[in-house]
Amino acid sequence: MDIFFQQIINGLVQGSVYALVALGYTMVYGILGLINFAHGEVVMIGAMIALTALQALLAAAFAPVLAVLFSLMIAMAVCMALGYSIERIAYRPLRHAPRLAPLITAIGVSIVLQNLAMMIWGREYHSFTLPFTSTSHHLGGAVMNDVQIGIVIVALVIMAGLMWLVHHTRTGRAMRAVAENPAAATLMGVDINRVISVTFMLGSALAAIAGFMVSANYGIVHYYMGFMLGLKAFTAAVLGGIGNLRGAMLGGVLLGLIESLGAGYIGDLTGGFLGSHYQDVFAFFVLIAVLVFRPSGLLGEKLAERA
Amino acid sequence: MTKTPLLEVQDLKVSYGGIQALKGISLTIAQGELVTLIGSNGAGKTTTLKALAGLLHPASGKVDYQDKSLLHIPAHQRVANGISLVPEGRGIFARLTVEENLLMGAYVRSDKTETATDLERQYALFPRLAERRTQLAGTLSGGEQQMVAMARALMSHPTLLMLDEPSMGLAPLMVEKIFETIRDISAQGVTILLVEQNAKLALEAAQRGYVLESGAITLSGAASELLGSDAVQRAYLGA
User: Fold this and answer.
1) Are A173 and B103 a contacting pair at CB < 8 A?
2) Closest residue of B to A166, CA-based?
3) Does residue B234 lie in a domain region?
4) Is residue B221 part of a domain?
5) Residue in A with minimal Cα distance to B101
6) How many domains does chain B divide into?
7) Closest by alpha carbon to B13, among B43, B58, B64?
8) What is the spatial distance between Cα A206 and Cα A23, in angstroms, rounded to a whole number?
9) Which tens digits make up the pLDDT trace of B69-106?
10) Is residue A133 situated within a structural domain?
11) Which of the four pLDDT bands, split at 50, 70 and 90, describes residue B221?
12) Searching chain B, which residue's CA lies closest to the CA of residue A184?
């Protein structure tokens, strides 16, 4: 039972990160019908920038708490600029091109960003340590540390804030209107390009936060970390129903839990034949299962309605 | 005509790919007029409205609105200039509530108290919408959706309101109600350009009319004259 609770905690923490990243995929898909495969790399860039900023701020003798806060804000700002630029350079010129074209540029942007990060930060793993000790709390037989608690709380607050923005502000209303009917939104006076830019910037800010979280949790950053994380978060978005914000959050948390419980028990279930390093298998098993049995995802609408 | 026209279109040409949908049409609308554009399916009525709203880019021609050229003003800025189009098929936001749809209509307006007053005014004009303000617009009937589309357009305080086939797909009773509302809006001083397949209803409501055939205007004049003309009777009124 202790393992079970521990895996639930791990799953919630990892799921919070997936949820934030999945929101970025789903917001862009909802508005443009485009899978922004470069999104995972934005998470990685966020983590790298946060690391560099954190080290610089600590070296400049900032108080630890301020250094953490500022480095997160710098990472968010850089990622917002990056998300905005990616859309302007790689996607906007192809707005009316066949769907395959922006998908290919997305992969191109992803490769460019990975290589750029490799050139700047090198191929090695960097350790990412927060400038304060993270105490561990025992809950029954399970353990949860301050960083993990922080991740779950921050993710909840961010998600609540995003839902408020989308459902209760003029900008959010315009985003939903553009997602549903861009031509009609234009007739209302909405500048669609502006809404699309805002969407990319919001998604990228969430990606930066997620990048910070995952680095703080594992204590490691690497130029290739965005690839698998991006794929997993994309899976989470599909699981919840791509284009649906609540779906992305649900899908993220569920995927985190499935992975973590799967990794925790796979050894027992296969009599030790497969170990916990097979945890990635679960995400993609889920992806295939969703695509086969419920292509519209858990909360998604029927595909016929979109066409 | 003594007044300078609110809208003056000269020799407007629009093409889709290689097909010329409008072959050079000219029309004028004076401030406060209710003008109708009638014609059969595929004549170019919707194309005309889309070009005026900025959703389509004309190949050539002149479009002057309040004595200034509209051609280089992007579609989303034309609303703020007082040009509002209720598109064919209504274009409501099905997953937004009725009230959110109306608020989208006021997107370009910044005065919050005025917007609140405008909302109440629309609910007074369409009491049915007041009852359903928190309902998703997609769950409404076709007639109610047409009301949402019209109320939403009015939220922007249009100077020129363009309506594309407001009677399409509606039950006769609802058509009557919609046309009654169009007359009301016109009586309040809003200039209206009404596109309709239902030529009889449109000509009865309008002061002037244009007949569009295969991308060109073939007839124009006072609505009552068109209503009585043999050509219109034969082609559109089935007499």
Assistant:
1) yes
2) B96
3) yes
4) yes
5) A177
6) 1
7) B58
8) 8
9) 999 999 999 999 999 999 999 999 999 999 999 999 99
10) no
11) very high
12) B91
Domain that holds residue A17: 2-125+141-306
Chain B positions in Cβ-Cβ contact with residue A187 (cut-off 8 Å): 53, 55, 75, 79, 84-85, 87, 91
pLDDT of the residue at B238: 64
Domain range for residue B18?
A: 1-82+160-167+190-239
Q: How much is the pLDDT for A242? A: 92
Say if A131 falls within a structural domain.
no
| CATH number of the structural domain spanning residue A76 | 1.10.3470
Look at chain A and report how many structural domains it folds into. 1
Q: Which residues of A touch B79 (CB under 8 A)?
A: 187-189
Q: Is ipTM beyond 0.95?
A: no
| Cβ-nearest to A187 among B53, B96, B100 | B53
> Do the chains contact at B108 and A189, CB–CB below 8 Å?
yes
Decide if B75 and A174 are in contact by the 8 Å CB cutoff: no
CB contact under 8 A, B104 and A186: no
Q: Is residue B45 part of a domain?
A: yes
Q: Which residue of A has its CA nearest to B158?
A: A188
For B194-198, what is the mean pLDDT? 92
**Are B96 and A173 in contact (CB < 8 Å)?**
yes
Quick check: A181 and B55 CB within 8 A?
Answer: no
Nearest CB to A187; choose among B85, B100, B103: B85
CATH code of the domain in which B16 resides: 3.40.50.300
Dig out the tokens for B31 from the structure: 């401030």
pLDDT above 90 coverage of chain B, percent = 87
Q: Which of B55, B79, B94 has the CB atom closest to A188's CB atom?
A: B79
- Contact B107/A189, CB-based, under 8 Å? yes
**Which DSSP string do the residues of chain A spell out, in sequence order?**
-HHHHHHHHHHHHHHHHHHHHHHHHHHHHHHHS---TTHHHHHHHHHHHHHHHHHHHHHTT--HHHHHHHHHHHHHHHHHHHHHHHIIIIIGGGTTS-THHHHHHHHHHHHHHHHHHHHHH-SS-EE---SS---EEEETTEEEEHHHHHHHHHHHHHHHHHHHHHHHSHHHHHHHHHHH-HHHHHHTT--HHHHHHHHHHHHHHHHHHHHHHHHHHHSEE-TTHHHHHHHHHHHHHHHH-TT-HHHHHHHHHHHHHHHHHHHHHHHHHTTTSS-GGGHHHHHHHHHHHHHHH-TT-SSPPPHHHH-
Strand spans (E) along chain B = 5-16, 19-30, 34-38, 60-65, 68-69, 83-86, 160-164, 191-196, 208-213, 216-222
DSSP state of B56: S
Extract the residue ranges of chain A whose pLDDT is less than 50. 303-307
CA distance B189 to chain A (A): 21
Closest Cα of chain B to A130: distance in Å? 43
3-state secondary structure of B144: helix
pLDDT at A306: 34
Mean pLDDT for B22-48 is 94
In a domain, B131, yes or no: no
- A130 in a structural domain: no
Q: What is the pLDDT of residue A1?
A: 65
